[in-house]
Amino acid sequence: MAYVTPESEALPLDAPAEPGALEAEHSSRDVRQRWFLSLPSILIIFFFAAGPLSVMLLYSFLTPGNYSGVKWEFSTDAWSSILMQRDIFDDTLQWADAHLSIFWRSLSLSMITTALTLIFGLPTAWFISTRPPGRRELWLFLMTVPSWTNLLVRTIAVQEMIRAEGVINNVLVFVGIVDEPVQMMFTNFAIGLGMTYVYLPLMVLPIYAAVEKLDKRLLEACYDLYASRWQAFYRVILPLVKPGIIAGSILVFVPCLGAYVVPRVLGGGKNLMFGNLIELQFGAGRNWPLGASLSFTLMVIVMVALIFYIRVTSQERKDG
Amino acid sequence: MQNLRYARQNETVGTTTETGQDGGPNTIMQAQTDVAEPAPMPGDTSNTREIAIDARKISKIYRGEDEVRALDNVSVRIRRNEFFTLLGPSGCGKTTLLRVIAGFEPPTSGQLWLNGKDISRLPPNKRPVNTVFQNYALFPHMSVANNIKFGLEMLGKPKAEINQTVEEMLTLVQMQAMKARRTSEISGGQQQRVALARALAPKPEVLLLDEPLSALDLKLRKEMQMELKRLQHETGITFIFVTHDQEEALTMSDRIAVMSAGKILQIGSPQEIYQRPAERFVANFIGESNFLDARLSGGSVTLKAGGTFPVENPANVADGDVSVLLRPEHAFLSDAEDALPARVETVVYSGEATSMHTRLEQSGEPVKLRLANAPTGSGMPEEGAQVRIGIQPGALSVLKD
Ligand SMILES: Nc1ncnc2c1ncn2[C@@H]1O[C@H](COP(=O)(O)OP(=O)(O)OP(=O)(O)O)[C@@H](O)[C@H]1O
Ligand SMILES: [Mg+2]
Fold first, then answer.
1. Cβ neighbours of residue B367 under 8 Å, at least 6 residues apart?
2. Cβ proximity of B396 and B325 under 8 Å
3. Burial level of B215, CB count in 10 A (0-12/13-18/19+)?
4. How far apart are CA B144 and CA B166, in angstroms?
């Protein structure tokens, strides 16, 4: 370097010392910014989720208080009584049939509801997204407008439709299809119907968002390449709107598992679901530790179900 | 439709060039005997047997808030193995014509025949016609190879044949190295080649290409032009190519149809279209033009600017007052007695040639000349100079207005 001028010394080249250095710097800067900006939400999550959860976990290992609350005595009864119960007469351990049937009802009704909202929701989302641009907002508005009212009000609306003197039964009797009103209230059917109605928008909206993004010209490409309508749906539409379907299914399935209002109103006292069982422990049952352990069980079931679901769906994507 | 498709399934890509002559399976030949021979089209001297696409009086009217006549009584016959180009300004109906041929738009009236069969009523997935879409429309969730595979799978071809064809196609468009990539992970030019391979893989009778090169930069576009010509030659498939780039049309096509406002104005070879445009619009759209007023009588014209010249009359315009076309490169500076006196207005040097804008003394009409530059670069008249303009023999051609 015989010809180094004073200027070139004053302005050292700013090139990165080694390959990848700039990229690393860039991404580390990125991460730092993200931490800083998300600090408020991290605090909120900590105080309102992690905090209460820790309290619940603690309670689940204590003994029920005499009237409510807990006694500070360690016990694992709350956990064992989720699945087992002690016979009142001979004191042997037995399966807690009542609990098991509630778990099963929650799980199966949630899955059926998710499937039904998907079956109704996918065509609905497709229909809305194929309307002319000005009309789509109107349809979306109509779709979501019931959600603006209180959940209880909507559930009672379903009740009005299906109860013995309700709209449906009146019509059926009047037309003469049945002689006596059909018993629909206080059945699993009623709960499934109610949840399907209540959670349908949660399925339609994410699918609509995915369908909206889908380039409709891809469909022409499908038909151009000899695909039938079914093949176009199966090979191109479905894989491309799958993120929306997954999001919608999670949004419907999770609140269904923990549903409280709908089974309470439409299922009555006999057809309990998970949410009602938990509520019972904190209320009339006066067994807070069991309520706490049940809440954790519900959380674990949701997590396992989600992990399983996402595993299965992403597996398919790799194959396709 | 099935036998029509499978009649060709044994052919490999390299050997399809003879399909234009062999005429396809018997079913088609029999169907052809029922066909009334349509009147010959302008610029078309072929017989029915060599025709791939035969569009008959096709109109397409979009009824929205106001009616749009996107295609207005379009008739065109496109030969097998032909590289046929639709050329015209934006909104003239090129895409609409392709969409009618592909089956995406039902024509308002008219018929569409393919290899002697009426396909007007066939849905797109039953037509042995594939499209290279302007935006490529590749399936974003599939790899390059799976995109190419798609059409073959839909046709239910056996697995071994599918894999073999996909390999051939990858080789043809030189994309073997990237067959496992997602289509969102390759460049625009590569996407274009994948779109081409995908459309070619099912070995369609006709390939439709809607401005496939418009998104590419100049250098890549030139490369792809050559590649398209090569592919068309190797596969022997009829190409219907849409562009609004006149140079692209002239360099690539066997024949060109110039469209305007839903009508086909002229069909012909690049030479015919360039040298003997039938109409002022065609002349104007392709290349640079001078239009001169003249009186036509018999086989010659008397220019308003003076002088009588023999003239070509491709559109058979009747005797009387007419416009004639003179291409700038067919005029030259001359000392001859019968050359037209003119005054130089501007001189623009552009490397291999010089453009000179002049005004004819007698008629006041502007005339543009394109003069090849001599190696010494001297001898061009100055602005304002008095010159005489000669016209090369056969340069003048009468235009229908
Ligand atoms: N779906 C439609 N509804 C109403 N009018 C349409 C529709 N599609 C096309 N048109 C109109 O039909 C005419 C022809 O359109 P087309 O797309 O065929 O033009 P083009 O020649 O392909 O133009 P470009 O070079 O810009 O692609 C235009 O005036 C266009 O506005
Ligand atoms: Mg177009």
1. B290, B292, B326, B331, B340, B342, B357, B358, B359, B360, B389
2. yes
3. middle
4. 10
Question: Going by CA atoms, what residue is nearest to atom 31 of ligand 1?
Answer: B91
User: What are the b/e assignments for A285-294, b being 16+ CB within 10 Å?
Assistant: ebbbbbbbbb
Q: How far, in Å, CA of B198 to CA of B41, rounded?
A: 33
> Would you say residue A312 lies in a domain?
yes
Residue A115 in tokens: 């499937």
| Separation in Å, CA B368 to CA A43, B290, B336, B341, B355 | 77, 7, 19, 13, 7
Q: Which domain holds residue A204?
A: 93-319
Report the domain count for chain A.
1
- The reported pTM is 0.78
| Closest Cβ opposite residue A227 in set B137, B138, B154 | B154
Chain-chain contact of A224 with B130 (C-beta, under 8 angstroms): yes
Does the structure show a pLDDT above 90 at B12? no
CATH number at residue A101: 1.10.3720.10
Q: Taking residues B227-240, what's their average pLDDT?
A: 89
Q: What is the ipTM of this complex?
A: 0.76
Q: Is any atom of ligand 1 closer than 6 Å to the C-beta of B94?
A: yes
| Atom of ligand 1 at shortest range from CA of B86 | 21
**Band of pLDDT at residue B22, cut at 50, 70 and 90:** very low
Which of A213, A223, A224 should we substitute to test contact with B (largest number of B Cβ atoms within 10 Å)? A224
Residue type, A124: T
A76 falls within a domain: no
Indicate yes or no: CB of A220 within 8 angstroms of CB of B141. no
Q: What is the pLDDT of residues A78-109, one digit of tens each?
A: 998 888 877 777 777 777 888 999 999 999 99
Optimal mutation site among A213, A219, A226, interface B, most CBs of chain B within 10 A? A226
**Residue A229 is assigned to a structural domain of this protein:** yes
Question: Would A88 be classed as within a structural domain?
Answer: no
Angle at B144 between CA B140 and CA B149, to 5 degrees: 100
What are the residue ranges spanned by the domains of chain B?
288-399
Q: How do residues B347-375 score in pLDDT, each as one tens digit? A: 998 888 889 999 998 888 999 999 988 88
**Closest approach of chain B CAs to the CA of A239, in angstroms?**
7
pLDDT at A31 over 70: no
How many Cβ atoms from other residues are within 10 Å of residue B134's Cβ?
18
Comparing alpha-carbon positions, the chain B residue that sits nearest to A215 is B137
- The residues pairing with A84 across neighbouring beta strands, listed in sequence order, are A95
CATH topology of domain B288-399: OB fold (Dihydrolipoamide Acetyltransferase, E2P) (2.40.50)
